[in-house]
Request: fold
Amino acid sequence: MYVEHSAVRDSPDRLTDPIMTEITAIVLAAGKGSRMKSAKPKVLHEIAHLAMLGHVLDVAGKLGAHRTVLVAAPAMTGVEAYARTRAHNLDVAIQTQPLGTADAVKAALPFVPGKGVVLILFGDTPLLREETLQALVRTCAEEADIAVLGFEAADPTGYGRLVLDWEERLTHIVEHKDAREDERGIRLCNGGAMAVKAEHLAALIGEVGNDNAAGEFYLPDIVAIAHKHDLKALVVRGLEEEVLGVNSRIDLAEAEAVFQRRARNKAMEEGVTLLDPQSVYFATDTRLGRDVVIGQNVVFGPGVTIADNVTIRPFSHIEGASVAAGAIVGPFARLRPGAEIGADAHIGNFVEIKKAVVETGAKINHLSYIGDARVGAGANIGAGTITCNYDGFNKHLTDIGAGAFIGSNSALVAPVKIGDGAYIGSGSVITRDVTPDALAVARGKQIERAGWASAFRAKNEKKGGE
Reply:
């Protein structure tokens, strides 16, 4: 999702050029995330229906990383299993004890080749953009031995400061608690991610000590070590919002808000009308065509594709579904996984579609459930119609032919086939196939007893009623 970008050593025209170097991504994901207060590993908590780790692995993949090394803690089998679903050429390194970020990188070194650029990322920083990381890798590959991601903090309190010399080379990173008064005035802060030439990484990590209060080995210390050896370190500036690290549920909500703002802006920039942007929520993989109009309080789950000229009316929920050009959905509609809505079809208020194909021009306008079904082109489904698709053990198909008319309050008991052009009388319970162009009525015979109501009232009024 594009937002304004600033990179100190790259021009926007070069951001799309291929990076002519081998990239190895190390993703640090061993943190337990105790502040999340969750049995789930921190990096598996989701932003826009995708685990934070998935966001990080995906952006590394977009950069063209040749291999990815995931650093996990012992017994983090769920994290490893998830990572294997998102990354190719994945190796897993185990940090046996939580001895700091440099120690975590050390665990990954056996899987790192001696050439190219090593990009070091954090699994709980899900908002980094491809443009920013491309600038980081390119700067390391073409101009420096180390490139560190920095950002201008509105309030730098608590952040590590990036200290530059008069040539704008990075000399060292100082933590806030260790900074002198003049250093605390620096607003250029450490964003965490960095790129290092592979040929230097092992030696730099090997010199990191743990002479600090926590007794841990900190990755930022390699900058000062590199400066001591006359290696060149530069800063690539990103935005403060994209370096947001998630350590709590509050941070998670803030990251979600940033993602949704980016997604809304991107949608509108690409030709989508959002009638109330703040109330529309997207998934990471939502795909929208042009001239789509989305009403208030619409929520997209994962796996949704919307074609051109579609209208999504307010309070609709769509997940795992596709909607073809010109269709209208909602208000108050629910499209569940497997729903395929055809061109110019209408899905109206309080209609639920699940694992069903609704063909071109079909209309299901009110209060219906259509599951495990095909609704033929131009068919009309009356209010209150349901497909009875589940017998308690198995799901069965209802096939409704083109141009069929299903009267209101009908129940179609699957498996059943309604022929093309057939009519179903309102209130019917259909249990057998209906031939094309036939009328099927399946309801109890209406009986009328003249004068029964007045006699009933007189009898009860004589008793005095209640």
The longest helix spans residues 249-269. The longest strand covers residues 188-197.
